[in-house]
Amino acid sequence: MALNPFKFAAPAVFYPLANRLIPWFWTLTGILLALGLYWGFFQTPDQLGGNNAQKEYYRIIFVHVPAAWMSMWLYVIMVFWAAVGLVFNTRLSFMMANAVAPTGAIFTFLALWTGAFWGRPSWGTYWDWDPRLTSELVLFFLYLGYLALHAAIDDQRRADRAAALLAIVGLVIVPVIYWSINCPDPTQCASLHQRSNLTRIEGNILFAMLTMTLAFWMYSFATSLMRLRTLILEREAEASWVQELLNPRGGR
Amino acid sequence: MWSAFWCILQRDLRLGLRRRTEVLTALAFFMIVVSLFPLGIGTERQTLQILGPGVVWVAALLASMLALERLFAADYEDGTLEQLVLTPQPLSLLVLAKVAAHWLLTGLPLVLIAPLVGMQYHLTPTQIVIMMLALGLGTPVLGLIGSIGAALTLGVRGGGILLSLLILPLYIPVLVYGAGAIEVSRIASTDAQPYLLLLAAFLLTALTLAPLAGAAALKIALE
Amino acid sequence: MLEAVALSCRRGERRLFQDLHLDVQPGSLLHVRGRNGSGKTTLLRTLCGLFTPETGEVRWRGKSIQSLGEDYRRELLYCGHLLGLKADLTAIENLAIASTLSSDPVRTHELWQALERLGLAGFEDLPIRMLSQGQKKRVALARLLLSHAPLWVLDEPFSALDREAVCLLEELLARHLGQGGLVILTTHQEVPLTSGRVAHLDLGY
Predict the structure, then answer these.
(1) Buried b / exposed e along B44-69 (16+ C-beta atoms within 10 A)
(2) What is the enclosing helix (H) or strand (E) of C78?
(3) Best of A87, A146, A155, A165 to disrupt the B interface by mutation (most B CBs within 10 Å)?
(4) How many CB pairs under 8 A join A and B?
């Protein structure tokens, strides 16, 4: 998606490109997912590195952590396209933002869900008002707000622009929200989650986790592009190239 | 430029005072929510003292939400909003004037009635003073952030519910530090200082940024 | 003086107009005609800068209205379908606010004169909601008397007006054009003018 935006900004040019890319992304998703899950289940130690007491169930990490990362990355990507759309008034950028949002929401939900499953054996509860959990929940609400606002406005262009502005406002406030949840008392901070440091993680665990993250990236590309393809067809239904595409013989 | 600000401020205050029910509804709502909580959670003195700060803030959040729905709606329906956008004035300044009038009509009464709520929840006199300060700094932030949402949901189906979905998550920082300030001042009022300073920082940031976003949102809504 | 270059707009899925060019000179009136839903109001709102066109731009004195911003809005007066009056305020209050906001302040007695000229003597102090539809429209049109803006954009200014008020409005338009003003309006009736040039633009045919 980071290709020269000015060449591919026209939906008519982008559509065939998306068509060509989608199978590749799906293939990569499949391979990386298989590899990541295999490695995660069979090639990693039974205990989370060092003197950490967490047992077999820690393998949820291979879904949980990549999903949490994706949920944040996709929000940033969504806001990026929304901002590009507002500044340059390009239709395709708004469609990109729209296409990314549901995938982001799904990953956020997945991160919360797997987090609950992990929390039960390790903390003894499905839910705790842990800062990161709460922040993830807020992020989920932000995705829902974006999708709900977009769905509630009938006029396509107004929906695009209003939702884009909301996403940007959300991104500006998110650090403040995150911080306020993390430090309810401004004089000291606490968190159930440990500080993460990628270099201290055992090699096999890191490999599986990064493979899974890559797989999720490919999955995000694939689903976003598929959604984008549908959006382009829906919104450009009037354009002559779509007419030709749908009726190759030219007759109606 | 400031004459336009005063003009809108006066106009909205005058309109608010001619339609007192809309103004009083938010206040009544706040009082009812606050008064119902003890019936639900029990009237034990200690429980109320612990829950009081949080309840007051959640009620203030909801009351502000309820009033915000009408912030731009009336102007949108009768076409005055269109005319405001077309005046040779910076739109963000007019938004700021509207939010200021809105706060004077719906936010300030909450601050003034706070001591009553404080007594209902057996808060100490220090806590009541801190609560008024926190509400005084926090409720304008709610109005400023909320004005963006109110502009975005103008004329949208189910605007009120949607507005709360969009805006309530963004209120979290004010809720956390607003309630925190009252909570910690139970022991010493000086403990509340960092909280109040943070709320003041939020207010200043919101004052500079929110009207710009609100103006952009209004332009989008009018298309 | 007011130009539209290669303007195209669409509402949702429907394309209203495409590649529209127009140029309105001082002293002339552009009468926009078309069926219901042909995009007259959207065109007017685009010319005011309320609606962003899909392609093309609107220029005032050779500069894009986007870049002019407040300088353009100072020279513009728009009367839309919605009258832009607060029902709980009186006619005088409404006009006073409108003139303060337009950075074109008017003395109080001029407000009273304007309302009297429009046949609203005796109704100045009543809240707008007590007035009839035609009277409300007259209050909205009183802004034309008070404004010094060279460009008037009027959406259906003749609707809900009685014969007497129609004559008065025609007189105002003629005077404005005579002073070198520009008018763009939509209406379903012919506009008989005593001065100025009239051009027609037909949408949706």
Answers:
(1) eeeebbebbbbbbbbbbbbbbbbbbb
(2) strand C76-79
(3) A165
(4) 79
Q: In which domain, by residue range, is B159 found? A: 2-221
- State the first-to-last Cα distance of chain B, in angstroms, to the nearest integer: 25
Residue with tokens 């949080």, as numbered in its chain: B54
- Per-residue pLDDT tens digits for B123-163: 888 899 999 999 999 999 999 999 999 999 998 887 788 99
Instruction: State the smallest CA–CA distance between residue A170 and chain B in angstroms.
Output: 7
Measured CA to CA, the distance from residue B161 to residue B145 in angstroms comes to 16
**A-chain residues within 8 Å CB-CB of B157?**
152
State whether C13 and A154 contact (CB < 8 Å). no
Q: Does B148 touch chain A (CB under 8 A)?
A: yes
Query: Which residues of A fall within a CB distance of 8 Å from C52?
Result: 89
* Chain B residues inside the 8 Å CB shell of A169: 148, 170, 213
Q: Does C52 touch chain A (CB under 8 A)?
A: yes
The DSSP-derived string for A132-159 is: HHHHHHHHHHHHHHHHHHHHH--SHHHH
Q: Does C190 touch chain A (CB under 8 A)?
A: no
* C51-87 per-position pLDDT tens digit: 888 888 899 988 888 888 888 998 899 998 888 888 8
C12: closest chain B residue by CA: B223
Pairing assessment for the beta strands C2-11 and C55-60 based on DSSP bridges: antiparallel
Kind of pairing, strands C63-64 and C151-155? unpaired
State the helix-helix crossing angle for B91-102 and B125-152, rounded to 10 degrees. Answer: 140
Q: Report the CATH fold assignment for A21-45+55-246.
A: Four Helix Bundle (Hemerythrin (Met), subunit A) (1.20.120)
Structurally, chain B folds into a number of domains equal to 1
The SS3 call for residue B179 is helix
Return the H-helix or E-strand segment holding C9: strand C2-11
pTM of the model: 0.87
Residue B58 pLDDT: 92
Residue B80 Cα, gap to closest chain C Cα (Å): 4
pLDDT above 90 for B32: yes
